[in-house]
Amino acid sequence: MAQDPVPLEDNVGYVLKQAATALHVAMETALRPCGLTLSQYSCLELLRRTPDQTNAQLARGAFVTAQSMNEMLRTLEDRGLVVRPDTAPAGRARPTRLTPAGRCAVADANEALAPVDAAMAALATHPDHAHLLTSLRAVITTLTP
């Protein structure tokens, strides 16, 4: 059996996956008391920043499929956090907005995520911060068709 050329702990893809997983777990843990998943929070935060997004726009922004987003929006509607018109104003797209309860939920979630955000922001003081961002953007550019 051939020996792997790069030890697993030095494999960029593996370490990136570990970092992404650690961030995901930290955020999910912080959001649990708010009754939100990370995907639900992402959807609400996208709507807070840019109201009236369509299912497809939200799915792209939250990195989920359109079908998953449609199910998520139904759940968030049932909880009174978002509202969509019964019929599309034009075409098939139904723009989504936060309700007052949704604005409160995303504000609570942002507060719950503050320690995670602070830990990530602390990386900005690291001398290699700019290089890290440049390298991560290069990975995205290289691997995105």
Tell me what you see in this structure.
62% of the residues lie in helices and 3% in strands. It is an all-alpha fold. The chain has one domain: Winged helix-like DNA-binding domain superfamily/Winged helix DNA-binding domain (Arc Repressor Mutant, subunit A, Orthogonal Bundle), CATH 1.10.10. Helix 2 packs across helix 3 and helix 2 packs across helix 5. It is globular. It starts with 11 loop residues before the first helix and ends with a helix.
Give the tags.
7 helices, Arc Repressor Mutant, subunit A, single chain, two-stranded antiparallel ribbon, mainly alpha, 145 residues
- Protein structure class: mainly alpha
Number of helices: 7
Give the strand order, joined by hyphens, for the main sheet: 1-2
Strand content is under 5%
CATH class: Mainly Alpha
CATH architecture descriptor: Orthogonal Bundle
Order of helices and strands: HHHHEEHHH
CATH superfamily: Winged helix-like DNA-binding domain superfamily/Winged helix DNA-binding domain
Task: Please estimate the helix content.
Answer: 55-70%
- Report the uncertain regions: none
The CATH topology is Arc Repressor Mutant, subunit A
Task: Count every beta strand, where a strand is a DSSP E run of 2 or more residues.
Answer: 2
How large is the radius of gyration? 19 Å
Largest sheet: 2 strands, antiparallel
Described by the principal axes of the CA atoms, the overall outline is globular
Query: What is the first-to-last residue Cα distance?
Result: 33 Å
Number of domains: 1
Integer average pLDDT: 91
